[in-house]
């Protein structure tokens, strides 16, 4: 598909006039995608196609199969931990350029769902448990994107806060928490940044799927909030014809359409389930969005094939500087007993499976192919002071699957890194043809062919992986295979694994992949072995009389690693730690543990990671212990009291290792603060008893008591509270000043606030300041309100020791309003309120009072 050569008259046409010229078939064709990533073009009317791309922390482009090497931003919770308006805007501007490099004009981001539970599979994709922080972050991000002419697609609207049964589960939320917690980030973003598009969530809300929920999309979003942009479904998240169109869902994605086919829509029109004028309204909405994007990006839309994608190598040094800064400023120093960090000298043992791995983001829609990547080990090695001596030990495994094929593998020519990848049509007798119709060399053995096609291949086909494996050791070596469909694995032309029977489905490939099958074989160092896997995309045969459900996608993951005895490797790590002055354990989760399509079962670190940390901390008694936790959300820390320091770098993107090194060695003074609460145990999580879908329904029984609101109201001490974050220096607050505006009407009411921040320590550093509000003790309505809620933040520049800076914020009506279920309006309690500056959500430092007038009520934005 290309728009090249198309007349640009569409840029100036009145969309309504254009709709009048269209046939019903043309109108209906526009209301669903052309393919996975593009809208439909109509050459007769010079209507161009535009391209969309995932996702929240980087623009992947049009293919899961052949991803364009890309910038990978630190994940959303890391960005939120910076509490920086500036860095959020800078991230949005960079992502706009990355989107354009994929020939796309819409980025499917940001994700602003609430981190209702740290076990949520996509918690790492969302900013925070706090709705105001999430909304303000989203607004900065969206304004930056759209200032560059790239549409945001804020998502997922709404209450996609879990992955369990996500397409069918019904989120049951009463009006007050729905408004104050789950809708609020979207409302703030709508008021402050006017996103050009919204993406609906998969789930139901109070009985109706969000993509066909008229009260949500039309009554609230379009009418009450004055939204005039495009509403699209999540991919395969449209479930009806008439209901979704009448609810004002403009675009079904992806294409080809499952629902918006002309015969189905025409039948609904003939049955008077859809009015022709409703079709016109949806087409008009879609075309106005396309026209806006084409005007802002005319050259990209018209002058290049929108299949064309490129990597922005000319900007890589500048990009890396920003990513490294965001990663470092997002790192949270949770604990630093005896000031073990920063490390300036001595023997340092770097231990753990994540140290040499490239853990840069979570899984699912957030997956990207990094244009470059820096592991923690590489970062610590490249940036170390000359007085630091590094050594390494694996400790134990940490990944769900063995690592993808490494440098030990080449194509069959023995020269090119990677492996040969060949596709064969299926013959009439069900066998692969003799000759492949497509051959390539692939570098990565984690492969999803969801968007791969070839004119000489049908829907199903055979694929072969052929590689030369040069053994790097003498000993036992393991290969692991996880596939959809069927597979047969050969070493030296000997069948070593038959995966042609039905496999138990696991979390891989959005729930379509089988358990990893491990093959262990003895190898001789330096010897070259022929590896071959034959893959049949068809599902294994089922028993007679049963139906075979078609697979959702074609995928395979091949791993390789030495066979190890983890008792021995953990002991080796302990012994290395004993010989060192400091042990830095790099552990955590990765894209196979935190991902779209499934939730985590508990807070524990996987595999034997907790055992590794505990043994090193317990047995290396004369060694200082630092734990670096790469994870997107909370984990338990049963070894916390045994270690000196804990550093939380989240998923740091391309520059993860360098950002970690900057803080470990003290080049950067940590300033990150937690955007989520870290609970001590699962029982303390507000949603613990009602997190998953229970016979299709998820009851949000905790109401407004989400995150730190819950811990404060119930007097529960978390492991670390929201807002916690240490520094290598100290800060104090003074001169908190509150200046109310003279206007008392809600739309004009403002509160100007400033506080002086003083660096009272011995190291230069920056500091984010968190402003909370505290309502009057007695409520005129009888409602219970949270004691404090975050309503604003800002960050200082880097302050030298002894220096100070005054930080300013401004509150508006959102900061003091709650949802009144009796009148279905926003209200504020009249009387004396307080602004408080918090060290964290449970520790307030300074405060000042202000008054809220009576009859403070409003609706809309």
TrEMBL record:
The PA14 domain, residue ranges: 414-568
Keyword Hydrolase: yes
Biochemical pathway: Glycan metabolism; cellulose degradation
Catalyzed reactions per annotation: Hydrolysis of terminal, non-reducing beta-D-glucosyl residues with release of beta-D-glucose
One annotated GO biological process: glucan catabolic process
Stored InterPro entries: Cellulose_deg_GH3, Fn3-like, GH, Glyco_hydro_3_AS, Glyco_hydro_3_C, Glyco_hydro_3_C_sf, Glyco_hydro_3_N, Glyco_hydro_3_N_sf
Pfam families: Fn3-like, Glyco_hydro_3, Glyco_hydro_3_C, PA14
Broadest EC class assigned to this enzyme: hydrolase
GO MF term (any one): beta-glucosidase activity
Transmembrane segments: none
Superkingdom field: Eukaryota
Record keywords: Carbohydrate metabolism, Glycosidase, Hydrolase, Polysaccharide degradation
Enzyme Commission number(s) from the entry: 3.2.1.21
Family membership noted in the UniProt record: Belongs to the glycosyl hydrolase 3 family.
UniProt protein name: beta-glucosidase
Species of provenance: Kwoniella dendrophila CBS 6074
């Amino acid at each position: 598909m290309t728009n090249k050569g198309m007349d640009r008259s569409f840029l100036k046409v009145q969309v309504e006039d254009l709709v009048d010229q269209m046939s019903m078939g043309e109108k209906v064709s526009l209301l669903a995608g052309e393919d996975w990533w593009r809208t439909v073009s109509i050459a007769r009317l010079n209507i161009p196609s535009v391209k969309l791309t995932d996702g929240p922390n980087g623009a992947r482009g049009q293919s899961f199969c052949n991803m364009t090497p890309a910038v990978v931003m630190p994940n959303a919770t890391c960005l939120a931990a910076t509490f920086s308006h500036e860095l959020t805007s800078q991230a949005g501007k960079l992502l706009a350029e990355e989107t354009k490099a994929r020939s796309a004009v819409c980025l499917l981001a940001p994700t602003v769902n609430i981190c209702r539970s740290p076990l949520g599979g996509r918690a790492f994709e969302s900013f925070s448990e706090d709705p105001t922080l999430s909304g303000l972050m989203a607004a900065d991000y969206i304004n930056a994107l759209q200032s560059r002419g790239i549409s945001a697609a804020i998502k997922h609207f709404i209450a996609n806060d879990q992955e369990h049964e996500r397409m069918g589960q019904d989120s049951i939320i009463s009006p007050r928490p729905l408004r104050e917690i789950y809708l609020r980030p979207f409302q703030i973003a709508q008021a402050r940044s006017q996103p050009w598009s919204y993406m609906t969530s998969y789930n139901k809300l109070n009985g109706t799927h969000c993509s066909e929920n008229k009260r949500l999309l039309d009554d609230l979003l379009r009418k009450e909030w004055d939204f005039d942009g495009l509403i699209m479904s999540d991919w395969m998240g449209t479930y009806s014809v008439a209901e979704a169109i009448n609810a004002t869902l403009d675009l079904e994605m992806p294409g080809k359409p499952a629902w918006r086919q002309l015969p189905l829509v025409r039948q609904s029109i003939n049955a008077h389930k859809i009015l022709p004028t409703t079709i016109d309204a949806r087409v008009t909405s879609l075309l106005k969005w396309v026209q806006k994007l084409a005007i802002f990006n005319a050259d990209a839309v018209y002058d290049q094939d929108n299949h064309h994608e490129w990597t922005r190598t000319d900007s890589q040094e500048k990009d890396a500087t920003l990513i490294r800064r965001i990663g470092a400023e997002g790192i949270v120093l949770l604990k630093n007993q005896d000031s073990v960090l920063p490390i300036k000298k001595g023997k340092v043992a770097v231990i753990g499976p994540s140290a040499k791995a490239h853990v840069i983001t979570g899984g699912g829609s957030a997956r990207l192919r990094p244009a470059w990547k820096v592991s923690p080990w590489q970062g610590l090695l490249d940036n170390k002071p000359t007085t630091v001596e590094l050594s390494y030990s694996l400790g134990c495994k940490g990944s769900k699957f063995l690592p993808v094929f490494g440098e030990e593998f080449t194509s069959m020519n023995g020269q090119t890194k990677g492996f040969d990848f060949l596709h064969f049509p299926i013959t009439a007798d069900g066998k692969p043809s003799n000759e492949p119709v497509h051959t390539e060399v692939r570098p990565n053995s984690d492969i999803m062919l969801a968007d791969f096609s070839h004119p000489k291949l049908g829907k199903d086909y055979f694929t072969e992986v052929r590689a030369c494996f040069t053994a790097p050791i003498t000993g036992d070596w393991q290969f692991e295979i996880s596939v959809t469909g069927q597979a047969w694995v050969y070493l030296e032309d000997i069948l070593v694994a038959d995966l042609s029977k039905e496999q138990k489905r696991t979390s891989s490939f959005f729930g379509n992949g089988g358990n990893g099958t491990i093959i262990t074989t003895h190898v001789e160092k330096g010897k070259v072995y022929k590896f071959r896997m034959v893959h049949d995309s068809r599902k294994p045969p089922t028993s007679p009389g049963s139906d075979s459900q078609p697979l959702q996608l074609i995928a395979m993951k091949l791993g390789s690693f030495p066979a190890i005895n983890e008792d021995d490797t953990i002991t080796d790590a302990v012994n290395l730690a004993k010989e060192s002055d400091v042990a830095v354990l790099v552990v955590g989760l990765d894209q196979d543990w935190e991902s779209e399509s499934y939730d985590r079962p508990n807070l524990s670190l996987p595999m034997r990671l907790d055992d590794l940390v505990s043994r090193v901390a317990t047995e290396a008694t004369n060694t200082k212990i630092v734990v670096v936790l790469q994870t997107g959300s909370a984990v338990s820390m049963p070894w916390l009291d045994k270690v000196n320091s804990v550093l939380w770098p989240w998923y740091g993107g391309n520059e993860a290792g360098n950002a970690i090194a900057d803080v470990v060695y003290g080049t950067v003074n940590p300033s990150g603060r937690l955007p989520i609460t870290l609970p001590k145990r699962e029982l303390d999580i507000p949603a613990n008893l009602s997190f998953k879908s229970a016979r299709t329904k998820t009851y949000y029984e905790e109401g407004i008591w989400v995150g730190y609101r819950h811990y404060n109201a119930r007097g529960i001490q978390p492991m670390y509270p929201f807002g916690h974050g240490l520094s290598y220096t100290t800060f104090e607050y003074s001169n908190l000043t509150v200046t109310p505006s003279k206007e008392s009407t809600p739309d004009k009411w403002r509160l100007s606030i400033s506080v002086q921040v003083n660096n009272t320590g011995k190291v230069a550093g920056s500091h984010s300041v968190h402003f909370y509000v505290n309502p009057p003790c007695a409520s005129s309505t009888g409602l219970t309100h949270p004691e404090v809620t975050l309503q604003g933040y800002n960050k200082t520049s880097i302050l030298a020791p002894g220096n100070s800076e005054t930080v300013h914020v401004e509150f508006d009506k959102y900061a003091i309003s709650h949802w009144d279920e009796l009148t279905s309006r926003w209200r504020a309690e009249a009387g004396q309120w307080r602004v408080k500056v918090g060290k964290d959500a449970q520790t307030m430092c300074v405060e000042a009072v202000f008054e809220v007038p009576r009859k403070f009520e409003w609706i809309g934005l």
